[in-house]
Specification:
Length: 347
Amino acid sequence: MGVRLDESDEYMHELGPEPNFNESMYINCFDPVQGVGGWFRMGNRANEGTAEMTVCLYLPPEVEGGNRQVGFMFKRPAIDNNDAFDAAGLTWTMVKPFEELRIDYVGKVVVLDEPEQMADPKQAFTDNPYAEAEIHLTFTGQGRPSMFGGEPDEPHETPGEEFAKGHYEQLVVATGTMRVGEREWQVDGFGLRDHSWGPRYWQAPWYYRWLTVNVDENFGFMASRVAKRDADGTRGGFVWENGRMHLCDDVEISTETRGTESYHDRIEGVIRSSRSEREWRFTGEALSLIPLRNRRQAPDGDWLQTRISEAYTKWTIHSGDFAGRVGYGMSEYLDQIIGDQPVGLAE
């Protein structure tokens, strides 16, 4: 099965007929020196008449030894077309396909001393203070050879279980400014971006683990484990090492959790490429985690609840040319919640 990825895919796609058609861009970045960063997402659901706009900022302690804070905002602004990613104060600008993208955000964020309060979003938005935020970031990539993914020549998802008709990712360098209230940072860091389009329900996967890792401009990777309710699902990703893309077809991940909510805390894993006959071992430490939720009503009237735990993560590489090096990125754990517990605990 072939995969197509053209420069035109860096722009908006034709709105499909599916009621749950989604086109979204996501990007994260972290400054390894200052310990500041975050992620941004815009998902257009024009056939539903709304977009999903998310800004999530991981902030260093205000004083030495203090708590890490998270600045967060989520909105569903009204939209009636799929012409652009531009709503609720967040704007995406494609400057040059495969090489440069810019985002700008001007608006409020709720400032959380205890990010896990977002498990109850209504209460979290009510009980915590707000601050004005302004973010201007430019992301640069290393061109077409650094792109991973695209749109398969043939449909690859079971009807009713679609998550993305097309999807690609790229490691990037990030520069610019972030301001939250009176605090401001000149950002110089690394991150990962992705772009997806097609019908999507967050309840389609049974669970997944999505890990993004940047050591520097010469090394990083993405590891993905997606489980289906009635099938094993997929394992894969890519490693970008010294200007070469290694396509990976196996990932093993083990997780230590904490608390009665079973949030992920420590991660041990290995990602492998049979084509390159290589493997890379790594461990991760969740530095700051915010739990998000998505709910959808099933045809029988029951509410399906999905938890997406988003953790700013410190990664250590344990094999290969970059063994001993430390990087930063995200560990995103999506689980369907059954009986108040995430379904993927056995992974």
